[in-house]
Design goal:
Structural class: alpha/beta
Radius of gyration: 29 Å
Strand order of the largest sheet: 13-14-12-15-16-11-17
Strand content: 5-15%
Largest sheet: 7 strands, parallel
Helix content: 40-55%
């Protein structure tokens, strides 16, 4: 075997049980050796919890203490279960069952159903939303697609908390949970949904757990059979266990205590799905003789990032906060976290894109960078900014802004209203463009006030509200513009943001980022009303928002940036305040006690920010008017001013760009955007200086593509080496 074979992709299988313990730190080793009795591992972010529990299982198997088939390890996602199985194989412990709660229960249910009930297990309903829609219709309740998603989520929450339909309204009131509709109405839909399932002999994923629990409770012989097979249990992410999952775990265990749980109460961020850290926090009460091991050595993040994470949690309140872990970084020092204040949201997005471009230029792979925000509706301005900067990106856990159902529907409605013009009675009382847009979108769910609570209805409203704000900004920048002009602008924006074909900067919500990590993380939009979110009313809800920010901070290995904008739009009133969670952490925001001191550094006033001098206005080279739109600034003229673009040159440039993009394995806009190509075709530069003066042509792109572009402008074919770039290189402007 070559040395390369023994890379991290193909590690050697340890040649003995003792070799399995090699490389573990003292606390991880303690976990690996604690093979009997109840064990509780309190594992902070980045402390190697998966390493500890997989080595524990592998050591037990290799030492002959545990039989592979007698171990059941459960976690919450197929990805995590697959990773666990892969690590166990690498350690020579194949044959251990590592599954999600649902897959483990389904396997048991399929095996025992014929014996208990007879016949085949009822068909599993892969997607319950259609049946929920039918149940709502039978209850004479009209739900749109987003409301359906919310009501479906409520039914799932009720089932995992073991709440029957009749008790749902009371359970909602007791939990201080904001239901998306009248709780009594949801209770009726829930009851009808259950009736329809019975009528059609189908079950859903929650039923898999409920039915398994029912069989194990009623049939002691079957419970004993499962307990004979599985002698040892491991539960990862134990802070996310629901009451129903805990009930199933108790039935698997019986009166035994060979259980190892791993979790971190400070990373409980899914309470809206029924997850609760109570089982983790109560573990030592239920098992007074439990071995408790704390993993606090953080191998992921630098001391600077860890210091900020610790400072953030030092301000936490409530029961989970009483059990917080003080992390200790094991990495070499790195840069201080950067705090940046911007004048407005577009400036924040552009500043973030510039910093990302600089990191990529410095050698940080685009795939090792993430921009994390509180809600998915925030993604659009960052998609635009990264596209303008020529930086490839990917969205995780959400549809792209212009691909969202509500945005597509809004576009169709606006296009129809634009065609109808004065013949559309909906626009009779609308005097200007923003009021026309508000009138049209009011038919799609937009209202002057946001809906209460979270969920799909709120997400839909946020998307429509973003379109309303865009219309207001568009009208302000282009007085006298029409609905048709706005539709054309939306089409252009959508066309410029096609999905990239390669890995790029990750755009994700904080919830979707759980379990992931990057070299560089940008936490954006950290203002009151967004972090914590405006509908977090109770102390408990606010503390979960703090934990959500903590999860975001601990995703970063080396570079961490935190930013906020004082106003929404350029020129707007600077009425926003930085998140309360940053108080005592960001420089100049007041001191905390020694335990909670934040990192060093200072707050940067980002481009266009509070104290920094603004850039001078960009003027149209045709009429001299001040330009405000990014696309117009690239062209250096108003959209409505005459264009002297060389159409033939523009087509040659597009053809050349397409070839370059294919060769680079990048989206076309990473070479040059359409606006930049239009500007080149209008100016027809003849020198490096003239080409560099065009917005979107920076030093790196000038160096990489300048010779080829100038050759095309001169009517020549690019040289063989002009414009060539190594495959996979992401170029900055």
């Amino acid at each position: 075997m070559t040395a390369a074979t023994h890379s991290t992709l193909f590690p050697r299988v340890p040649d003995s049980a003792d070799a399995v313990l090699d490389g573990l730190d003292p606390e991880q080793r303690e976990v690996a050796l604690a093979l009997h009795g109840p064990v509780c591992v309190l594992a902070g972010a980045g402390t190697g919890k998966t390493r500890a529990i997989t080595h524990r299982i592998a050591y037990g198997v290799r030492a002959g203490i545990l039989q592979p088939g007698s171990v059941l390890a459960v976690t919450f996602t197929n990805r995590a279960a697959g990773e666990m199985r892969g690590r166990l194989r690498e350690l020579g412990a194949g044959g251990v069952q590592a599954r999600t709660f649902h897959s483990a229960a389904l396997r048991q249910l399929q095996y025992f159903w014929p014996k208990v009930v007879g016949g085949d297990l009822p068909r599993l309903l892969e997607r319950k939303i259609q049946l929920v829609a039918e149940a709502a219709a039978r209850c004479r309740v009209r739900l749109d697609r987003n409301e359906l998603r919310d009501v479906t989520g409520e039914i799932e929450w009720a089932k995992v908390t073991q709440t029957v339909p009749a008790d749902y309204p009371a359970a909602v009131a007791k939990s201080v949970r904001e239901a998306p509709r009248d709780p009594a109405e949801i209770g009726q839909i829930y009851a009808m949904y259950e009736q329809l399932k019975r009528d059609r002999s189908v079950i859903d994923f929650e039923d898999v757990l409920l039915l398994t629990v029912g069989i194990l409770q009623d049939r002691h012989d079957i419970a004993d059979q499962i307990r004979r097979q599985y002698q040892h249990f491991v539960v990862d992410e134990y802070q996310d266990v629901s009451p129903l999952q805990q009930r199933l775990l108790d039935l698997w265990l019986g009166d035994r205590d060979n259980l190892c749980v791993v979790g971190d109460a400070s990373q409980t961020i899914y309470s809206f799905t029924g997850a609760t850290p109570d089982h983790l926090l109560n573990f030592r009460t239920r098992h007074p003789d439990a071995t408790v091991v704390k993993l606090v050595r953080d191998y992921r993040s630098t001391p600077q990032v860890v210091h900020l994470a610790n400072g953030l949690l030092s301000q936490a309140r409530g029961r989970a906060a009483e059990h917080r872990l003080e992390l200790i970084s094991q990495r070499d020092p790195g840069p201080e976290p950067a705090y940046t204040e911007y004048a407005d949201e577009p400036a924040e997005a552009e500043g973030t894109a510039r910093r990302i471009r600089d990191l990529i230029a410095a050698g940080v792979p685009a795939g090792e960078i993430a921009v994390l925000y509180r809600i998915n509706a925030q993604s659009e301005v960052y998609e635009q900014a990264l596209a303008d900067a020529g930086v490839p990106y990917q969205l995780r856990g959400a549809e792209r802004f212009f691909e969202r159902q509500e945005v597509r529907e809004a576009g169709i409605a606006l296009r129809g209203a634009a065609r109808a013009g004065g013949n559309d009675s909906l626009l009779d009382d609308a005097e200007d463009l923003p009021s026309q847009v508000r009138a049209v979108l009011s038919t799609k769910g937009w209202t002057t006030e946001p809906p209460a609570g979270s969920g799909a209805v709120r997400d839909r409203w946020e998307s429509l509200a973003a379109l309303v704000r865009l219309a207001e900004d568009f009208a302000r920048a282009k007085p006298g513009s029409t609905l048709s002009d706005l539709v054309a602008e939306l089409d252009e924006r959508a066309a410029a943001q096609h999905a990239p074909t390669v890995q790029g900067v990750t755009l994700a919500s904080l919830h979707a980022a759980k379990g992931l990590e990057w070299d560089a993380v940008f936490l954006v939009g950290l203002t009151e009303g967004m972090m914590p979110i405006t509908y977090a009313k109770t102390d408990e809800q606010v503390e979960e928002e703090r934990r959500l920010l903590y999860v975001g901070v601990t995703r970063a290995r080396l570079h961490l940036s935190l930013s906020w904008a004082l106003s929404r739009a350029p020129g707007g009133r600077a009425s926003r305040r930085p998140s309360r969670f940053l108080k005592g952490l960001r420089p100049g925001s007041g001191a905390l006690g020694a335990a909670g001191a934040g990192g060093g550094g200072s707050v940067d006033r980002g481009s266009g920010g509070g104290r920094r001098k603004r850039r001078g206005p960009v003027l149209c080279r045709v009429c001299g008017a001040t330009l405000t739109e990014a696309g117009e600034m690239k062209l250096m003229r108003c959209e409505g001013c005459p264009s002297d673009m060389d159409e033939a040159l523009f087509e040659r440039l597009r053809e050349w760009r397409s070839d370059q993009a294919k060769e680079l394995g990048q989206p076309a806009y990473c070479v040059f955007t359409d606006k930049t190509l239009m500007a080149i075709a209008e100016c027809v530069p003849s020198s490096d200086g003239e080409l560099a003066s065009i917005s979107g042509v920076g030093a790196r792109k000038l160096d990489r593509f300048g010779a080829a572009v100038l050759a095309l402008c001169a009517g020549e074919e690019p040289g063989e080496e002009a414009g060539q770039a190594p495959v996979g290189v992401v170029e900055g402007p």
